[in-house]
Amino acid sequence: SPRQVGIPSQGLFGLLDLNADGTHRYDFDTSNPDLIALAASERAGEDGTYTIEDTDGDQSTAVLSFTFVGVNDAPSLTVPSSADVLASLSRQISDIQVAEPDKGDSVTVILTGTGGVLSSTTSGATGSGTSTLSFTGSVAAANTFLSSFTFDAGSTGPVSLSVQVTDTGGLNASDTIPLTLLQGPQATSIA
């Protein structure tokens, strides 16, 4: 249906409001997933045709063109509020995930363990066997890396795990997971 003066009409990315004096306003929907997914400097457009008519019935048709330019959106990080690790044993720490709203963006994940050693067999992971482990790749590959690394806690605390994710545009998110060091069963000698 044709757009009418003073009545906002839904566009692809928001609401267009035409005014009787020829001005217009486009309120784009900042929660629109198609706009959020635009990578930095990626463009999406929308055209809207309108017709104006003067008092003696003469009409003129014009096109309004809108171009939306993507910006770098920060990645997000989900971590557990805490986790348990066993003294002197390797353990996976689950429920760590990264997300990146910009389509096609890769991320770098850096894990820093206090009081233990981090290990990973994921291709592309660096620092295995140290207290700092990193990985760069797609969001899906980063989440696979996060679901498979291990933390080998020492025999005494304190222990913690810091996680940082940075996207290709340099924006980041970080968090620290407090770890509880549990003492496992101790070997005893029988005489």
Topology at a glance:
Blueprint: E1 9-10, E2 14-18, E3 24-28, H1 33-36, E4 43-53, E5 59-69, E6 76-78, E7 83-86, E8 90-92, E9 97-99, E10 107-114, E11 116-119, E12 132-137, H2 139-146, E13 150-153, E14 159-167, E15 172-182
Parallel strand pairs: 7-15
Antiparallel strand pairs: 1-2, 2-3, 4-5, 6-9, 8-13, 10-12, 10-14, 11-13, 14-15
Uncertain runs with pLDDT below 50, 5 residues or more? Answer: 187-191
Sheet with the most strands: spatial strand order: 7-15-14-10-12
- Which geometry do the CA atoms define? rod-shaped
Structural classification: mainly beta
Number of strands: 15
Count of alpha/pi helices:
2
**Could you state the order of secondary-structure elements as H and E?**
EEEHEEEEEEEEEHEEE
Largest sheet: 5 strands, mixed
Oligomeric grouping of the chains: single chain
Q: What Rg, in angstroms, do the CA atoms define?
A: 27 Å
The amount of beta strand, in percent, is over 45%
- Report how far the terminal alpha carbons are from each other: 92 Å
* Fraction of residues in H or I helices: under 10%
